[in-house]
Amino acid sequence: MTIGPAPDRTAIRTLVVRDISERKRREEENRRLTAIIRSSDDAVLTKDLSGVITGWNQGAERIYGYSAGEAIGQEVAELLIPSARRGEAKRILKEAAASEVVAFETQRITKRGELIDVALRAFPIRGLSGEVTAVCTVGHDVSAVRRRERAEQRDTEAQAWRQRLRRSLSEGNLLFHGQPILDLRTGEVHHYELLVRMRLIGELTKMGCGVALDDFGTGYGSFTYLRYLPVTQLKIDMEFIRGLAADPADRRVNR
Question: How many whole angstroms separate alpha carbon 158 and alpha carbon 156?
């Protein structure tokens, strides 16, 4: 509130009242944000609307490896974001500027070149008049959690295969094949390589499943499988596809 004389210098006084509630709220938000940045163990960084880093806390230094002096002034996309995710920086800025909070999980690159999994929250920073002036990003390193989850998933898959093998053993679905190993010097069979195969495809076709033969033409994907397996699709190996437009030999093989 301000009180002053009227322009004509009479006894009349002018009273000007301005509502600053919104400005006070913004100031309080900025004070809370500053406190969060200073005290958080997470990586908290701010960037202007062009993606240039303007703030960097100790948590960001611990997780990403860069000091504040190294990071501030750099473009966040160039410093932290993997090349395959470069478009993410502009999307984050756009979405955070249009809403209050954007939460998602992604990956970042540390100073040592390590790829880490991070859970991110991005939210806008507004000026005293309410306009968005910057974006703050809070990152939490979830690499250890994701590694544990992947290990648990591998254990689950391994357990599932162990159960399949036990069931195949109990049901007599494992077949042994002796593959002769020939001594080229004498022409005699030197020994046999014992292979075990599990019967898991006939039952699938009875359920209505199709069977695709992968890497056809190389490795294990041979014409022999076409004779013995109920194959419905062929996935021809890339070696025969890459030059298909220019190489007549590749075209003949594919035909």
Answer: 5
